[in-house]
Amino acid sequence: MSEQDQEKAAKRAQWEEINRAKALAKQQQKDAAAAVATGGAVRPAETKKQFQAVKGTRDLLPPDTSLWNHVERTAHEVFGTFGFGEIRVPVLEPTDLFARAVGGDTDIVSKEMYTFEDHDFAHLERLRAQILGLEFDLVEAGNFGMFLTYIEKFTDGLRRGMEKKAIPLTLGNILAQKDLDDYLSRFENVTKGRPNETILRAPNFDADFTFVQQALSRVKFGEVISLRPEATASVCRAYIEHNLNQQPQPVKLYYTGPMFRRERPQKGRYRQFYQIGAEVLGGNEAPAIDAEVIEMVMTFFDKLELPGLELNINSIGHNAPDCRPKYVELLRTELHKVKDQLGPDSQRRIETNPLRVLDSKLESEQAIIATLPHIADHLCDACNTDYADVKNQLQLRGVIYHENWRLVRGLDYYMRTTFEITAKGLGSQNAVCGGGRYDGLVELLGGPQTKGIGFAIGEDRLILSLQDAGKVPAQRGRDIYIAWMGEHAYPEAVRIAKFLRTAGFSVELPPTEQKFGKALERAARLDSRYALILGDNEVSEGMFTLKTLADGSQEKFTGPDLLEFLKGHQ
Ligand code: ATP
Ligand code: MG
User: Fold this and answer.
1) Strand ranges (DSSP E) for 142-294?
2) DSSP 8-state secondary structure symbol assigned to residue 511
3) What are the strands, taking DSSP E only, across 7-113?
4) How many CB atoms lie within 10 A of CB 4?
5) Closest C-alpha among 251, 267, 179, 242 to residue 216
6) Which one-letter DSSP state was computed for residue 221?
7) Peptide bond before 321: cis, by omega within 30 degrees of 0?
8) Chain segment 548-568, per-residue pLDDT in tens
9) For ligand 1, atom 2, which residue shows the shortest CA distance?
10) What are 198-209's pLDDT values in tens digits?
11) Which atom, in ligand 1's list, is nearest to the CA of 457?
């Protein structure tokens, strides 16, 4: 290229660049206008927007989903043989349910829940945000008047909402309404009938503004609800709500489904993940129940051939002065002696929840923790006997376990048996199941005194472990690909497809005519076992040609003979 040409090309490139930028600016203007018109519902699309699954969530696709189905089918089967029935609980629950059941100061509740207020008052919520975020200079003429107008508008909306009972008549809402009304009535004679520009800022505005802010923040437009981070709380809620204590006890229920926790995503840890769990509610606390629940999970895992299973068990006693609390005090005293050698998290937990120190995964703390007293040596007589019985009952069932004195649960209503199951191929996220006894939970949620024990399996991890071990069921391609050719063949092809599908075969019927070679190619790509060839010849003879794709052999059949042959060669 000559120098001149080069220069020309450079100019042209520059020119194109400018044009692109202009076009982009124009598009952005358009998008912004559209966004304003739709209240922000449309996002500016500089380039064609590619949507992606939300962080920590993922799509499960074939063929993986067939493994998921296999796992869930096995759960239905195995749990059914133990007399468990399936419960399906909502994904949304009142936030308070989890705050109570999981514990307000756990990570799950304090920072990992997806929570929102469920209501029809978006306009009032926006107005509130506007008032709370006011940044204009209130000394400036007119602004203070406007501020009062906003509050008046808000209190009007709030009053009307509460009158219609669309906004809950909670004490917090009623008091907030009263505070805002009181505030406004102080300025009634200042504002009445006067244009905003003439209203001056109140002298002690800053203190007043704080007062108004607090009143506004107290208003709840609707129920605060969360995506469930686990399902035990929901099952207990359902047990209470439907008076399941009237049924023969204990009630044995299991569930499967997605859970949501806003954690840092990594292998085996997602924000939407799936659990398979079971709960036994009511009846007595016989150790045989604990052992049978554990036997059931282990049977399920064995049936799936989950590799490298290890069952860890422990007893954490119960919440009576001569049992766990006594041990916790002893533990606290011992921890104080070694406090300097512990990290900040454990140091804090000495005060808040000493049991949780035992949970620590910090390498530097392991040697110290190993010297701490074991809870098993400090259980009350009843819990001691119970623990021994659970172990006997496990032996009776041939369930192999390891005792792990460091396996604990942080909440008061957990008691006696706790267990955790780990599997292979999962790195540090190797717990596939956690469970335990929680006799106080139903009562804590407002129900009758009820015994309870249950577990939750992490299905995502279970699947990862099965995949890692190559325990994936063989993939099934199509049974039959119908290679039809000619307009007479098509109605016949539709009929035979229906006939074979009714008989339970997986059939691919191409929607448009294909050349013979192309049809066979597609049949092979779909991993079909047979191609059913249906051309004008076959139609006029009332026959079907069946080609076995593995060896290329071919045979002609009538409809009934075809079915018989296929059934005999499954
Ligand atoms: P971990 O210590 O692994 O965080 P956890 O104590 O939070 O587990 P549980 O609340 O007892 O777990 O839930 C039971 C099971 O659910 C866990 O053993 C695990 O297999 C699975 N699980 C928990 N959180 C997640 C997640 N974010 N992603 C995938 N699986 C999870
Ligand atoms: Mg966790």
Assistant:
1) 223-227, 251-260, 272-281
2) S
3) 85-86, 92-94
4) 8
5) 179
6) -
7) no
8) 999 999 999 999 999 999 999
9) 431
10) 666 666 777 778
11) 15
Q: What distance in angstroms lies between residue 274's CA and the mean position of ligand 1's atoms?
A: 9
* CA dist., res. 59 & res. 416, Å (int): 39
Question: CA-to-CA distance for 446 and 184, rounded, in angstroms?
Answer: 41
Q: DSSP class of residue 162?
A: H
Contact indicator for 418, 314 with CB cutoff of 8 Å? yes
Ligand 1, atom 19: closest residue by C-alpha:
458
336 token code pair? 């104080």
Tokens of 176: 């907030």
Residue type, 40: G
Q: Which two tokens stand for residue 485?
A: 């050719």
The residue type of 2 is S
Using the 8-state DSSP alphabet, how is residue 412 labeled? Answer: T
Distance from residue 110's CA to the centre of ligand 2 (Å): 13
State both tokens at 22. Answer: 């202009």
96 bridge partner residues: none
Ligand nearest the Cα of residue 461 is: 1
Q: Is the pLDDT of residue 67 over 90?
A: yes
Question: Which H or E element spans position 200?
Answer: none
Find the length of the chain: 570
d(CA 507, CA 498): 9
Instruction: Cite the DSSP H helix spans in 305-365.
Output: 324-337, 344-352
- The order of strands in the sheet holding 402-403 is 85-86, 251-260, 272-281, 452-458, 431-437, 415-422, 310-315, 402-403
Please give the single-letter amino acid code of residue 260: F
| Nearest ligand for residue 269 CA | 1
Q: Identify the pLDDT of residue 148.
A: 85
Asked whether the beta carbons of 277 and 438 are under 8 A apart, the reply is no
Ligand nearest, relative to CA of residue 427: 1
Copy the structure tokens of residue 134: 């006011």
Residue 75's nearest CA partner among 256, 267, 257 is: 256
Q: Whose CA is nearest to atom 22 of ligand 1?
A: 458
| Residue with CA closest to ligand 1 atom 7 | 108
| Range with the poorest average pLDDT among 130-144, 145-159, 242-256, 318-332 | 130-144
Residue minimizing CA distance to atom 5 of ligand 1:
434
pTM of this prediction? Answer: 0.84
d(CA 212, CA 132): 9
Q: Are 422 and 298 in contact (CB under 8 A)?
A: no
SS3 (DSSP) at 541: helix
Which tokens hold the place of 567? 């059934």
Q: What is the largest CA-CA distance in the chain?
A: 101
**C-alpha distances out from residue 108 to 59, 105, 115, 462, Å:** 24, 8, 12, 21
The type of residue at 81 is T
